[in-house]
């Protein structure tokens, strides 16, 4: 399991470990681990020049300890110390003393050109750790801006400076900066912020070193990274003695005037993901058939009985009175429901619909908002949602008693009990119209085939992103990938993982 720990949880683990270890032990282990990774990043290079940015506190101490170890090898190590030595904690002062006694050059940070006189092979970022709360400004901002122009590897110690370990947002918001690391060495445990919001862009390749802390000090995590193992138990090969009724019905509800493509995309995905029968219930006039996939069955929404079918409601639904009435019936249905797009907007605007969704606690409900839809549901701004995506997803799941899939970079899947899973697949190719409809159709198909709602949400998000990753690897995107192209890629992937893991 790829566990994720909040800042508070990391602090608790660290405190418990320190109580049983000699002082300075964890800083020595952190410095050694950082030096090992740094050496691996410069292996094979000649005339190696390592720049270490050391800030206040223990994160700076880890960087100074790494400088001490690196100085023992045939490379040039330079430290830019941005800290008041008299205010450093005890362990960091000891690390500073060890670095000064080593063959380490300390740059004059008062000299504006102290960074630019050398061509750096590697930069190690030890400016701020997980406790940073204020945005980077002044001379340090100029330093970070300079580092972000370099083409060499940049190794962040524990967390890229300027990035929130809990949320993945850049501290201070719009206009503020963070170190754009190519690699992050995360100590004790992995952190949510490295995998959602801006975290993916600023953390690079993340590795974790638990500093040999005993397992007894680690609490059960409330967050983890999404991976195939979390839903592998739901993967089942198809038996020979089956028929279309064995794989359930999906009813996609939407298709207001001018938005008929959205439910078609969702329905095509549901068919490609294995649903036995797929219906599209149009709130406006239904076409006779889908000329590309005539197996999809077209209906008028007000004539459809939902029964126990898996219902996907919202793609291209609109917000008319008719759409409202159809949504009300869908929420009253006894089968699993996936709620997306305009259905979410209507729920956000009407307390009565919110109560209907909350009262479905005994039936599977999955909501799939993007940040703007999430903001409407929580009566917040999009900026507030993005500033703490894990918390926003938790609030959505708890308030609406549903599984919440908060889409975006590092999609967050949240459950009513407060647990979250952050998705690891996907790329900017999915930033195009219709991909959300594809995701909702995939959820609907898995639910129709009897998948539990938890595994459905995890698998759908993971496969949706993984299919886009595979397409990009083939040269299809990230620019110009269309939602329609994702559909057959998901089908291929689903069959592959069933063959390999069921």
Short characterization:
With 502 residues, the protein is α/β, with parallel strands linked by helices. Helices cover 38% and strands 15% of the residues.
- Report the sheet with the most strands, covering strand number, pairing sense and barrel closure: 11 strands, mixed
Q: What is the distance, rounded to the nearest whole angstrom, between the alpha carbons of the first and last residues?
A: 19 Å
In helices, the fraction of residues equals 25-40%
Strand order of the largest sheet: 1-9-18-17-16-15-14-13-10-11-12
Proportion of strand residues: 5-15%
What is the 3D shape?
elongated
CATH topology term of the largest domain: UDP-N-acetylmuramoyl-L-alanine:D-glutamate ligase
CATH architecture heading of the largest domain: 3-Layer(aba) Sandwich
Strands, total number: 18
Radius of gyration: 26 Å
- What is the CATH C-level name of the largest domain? Alpha Beta
List low-confidence stretches: none
Number of domains: 2
Query: How much is the average pLDDT?
Result: 96
The CATH homologous superfamily name of the largest domain equals Ribokinase
Total DSSP helices: 16
Give the class from helix and strand content and strand pairing: alpha/beta
EC number: 4.2.1.136, 5.1.99.6
Protein name: Bifunctional NAD(P)H-hydrate repair enzyme
Cofactor: Mg(2+); K(+)
GO molecular function: kinase activity
